[in-house]
Design goal:
The radius of gyration is 22 Å and the shape is globular. Helix 2 packs parallel to helix 8, helix 3 crosses helix 4 and helix 11 crosses helix 13. The longest helix is centred in the middle third of the chain and has 20 residues. It contains 13 helices and twelve strands. By secondary structure, it is α/β, with parallel strands linked by helices. 36% of the residues lie in helices and 15% in strands. The chain has a seven-stranded mixed sheet, sandwiched between helices. Bound molecules: pyridoxal-5'-phosphate. Pyridoxal-5'-phosphate binds next to helix 3.
Length: 391
């Protein structure tokens, strides 16, 4: 069966009433016939029927055995780290999501978990950096905001040889484009706030496990630590997932058009988009992804915060905001927004230059989006002096 048809029909209708929409079980507890005799649900932190529909749905979409839904993407990441013990090490991609960096560095370092960072776009770096204490390898691919691509299959093999688990943050690609478990990953996490929700109207996170055993451990942590997703937000994510395929492929189509426009613009320096053949690991992206996603980053030839500021304050359709993956186009300036807490040298070392701008290309008409970028770029030219200063 076609994957879209399968996706739409794997969301169950309500067996009790026939409701075509999944009911929102807004309850804290479930009445029991006798102590311990219930219908599979006893307390809503432990389990909730609405949340269970979402968890089963995402497990199927990612090709995993079990999934757990959390109150945010970071709560999902936090649950995975809790699989580790004091003295264990994580080996993570260097261009990691800022919130994951903060959690690893400022929370888990205190509990004796060490994190080493390496440029995972080159498999040789992973082989060099992995140690006997590495129990978890952490990838994002594509990364935020420079869209670096790592080879999931090759890195899964290295992790497993070393007795470590591989977790992939699949937020940027979504399961519509990439299924890390099928490529060897043990765990997948999502900020469902982004493409899975898809409408910029909720905060949510998911962990999907390859095996029942690992999934059981995550479920235990979900219940024990308690950062669960609410029934209403679970319902919103289910509704978002109904149109996931449609949205993500359209985001990708718009993004490649935008990336090609930027690549040919005289004021633009570098364009970061895995769909461009000039991207370092384009061939790996083409191997492991069905399309290249909706995020495009670029730097200006005038590589200053002032020039970037001039640009981001002059777009009309692209709204200046953190986050991504929604219907409406957004843009952000990582150096002064999402990556502000990272020291300038460290930030630049991973490719986040002063003028780098990240676009979350939405579902508006591509011609309108390009016209918007074009007029905002013309403002940069005027504001930052002359074209002559640009080489
Ligand atoms: C946003 C994001 C997160 C964090 O998710 P929240 O839902 O904001 O907690 C984690 N990873 C990536 C790649 C993200 O973009």
């Amino acid at each position: 069966m076609n994957s879209t048809t399968k996706l739409i029909h794997s969301i169950p209708t309500d067996p009790l009433t026939g409701s075509i929409s999944v009911p929102i079980y807004q309850t804290s507890t479930f009445v029991q016939d006798a102590p311990g005799e219930h219908k599979g649900y006893d307390y809503a932190r432990t389990n909730n029927p609405t949340r269970a529909v979402l968890e089963n749905l995402i497990a199927e979409l990612e090709g995993g055995q079990l999934a757990s839904a959390f109150a945010s993407g970071l709560a999902a990441i936090d649950a995975v780290v809790k699989l580790l013990e004091c003295g264990d090490e994580i080996l993570a991609v260097d261009d990691i999501y800022g919130g994951a960096f903060r959690l690893f560095t400022h929370i888990y370092a205190k509990f004796g978990i060490k994190v080493n960072y390496t440029d995972t776009t080159d498999v040789a770096n992973v082989i060099d950096a992995i140690t006997p204490k590495t129990k978890l390898v952490w990838l994002e691919t594509p990364t935020n905001p420079t869209l670096k691509i790592s080879d999931i299959e090759a890195i899964a093999a290295i992790a497993h040889q070393n007795g470590a688990l591989l977790c992939v943050d699949n937020t940027f690609a979504s399961p519509a484009l990439q299924q890390p478990i099928k490529l060897g990953a043990d765990l997948v996490v999502h900020s469902a706030t982004k493409y899975l929700g898809g409408h910029s109207d909720l905060i949510a996170g998911l962990v999907i496990s390859k095996t029942k055993e690992l999934g059981g451990q995550i479920k235990f942590i979900q219940n024990a630590s308690g950062a669960i997703l609410s029934p209403h937000d679970s319902w919103l994510v289910i509704r978002g997932i109904e149109t996931l395929q449609l949205r993500v492929f359209e985001h990708s189509r718009n993004a490649i058009t935008v990336a090609e426009f930027l690549q040919n613009h005289p004021l633009v320096d570098q364009v970061f988009y895995p769909g461009l053949t000039t991207h370092t690991n384009h061939h790996i992206a083409a191997k492991q992804q069905k399309a290249f996603g909706g995020i495009v980053s670029f730097s200006l030839k005038t590589d200053t915060e002032a020039a970037a500021n001039e640009f981001v304050c002059n777009t009309q359709l692209f709204k200046l905001a953190e986050s991504l993956g929604g219907v409406k186009s957004l843009l952000c300036h990582p150096a002064t927004m999402t990556h502000k807490s990272i020291p300038a040298e460290k930030r630049k070392a991973v490719g986040v230059s002063d003028s780098l701008i990240r676009l979350s290309v939405g579902l508006e008409d591509a011609c309108d989006l390009i016209a918007d970028l074009d007029q905002a770029l013309s403002k940069v030219h005027i504001a930052s002096g002359t074209l002559e200063t640009v080489n």
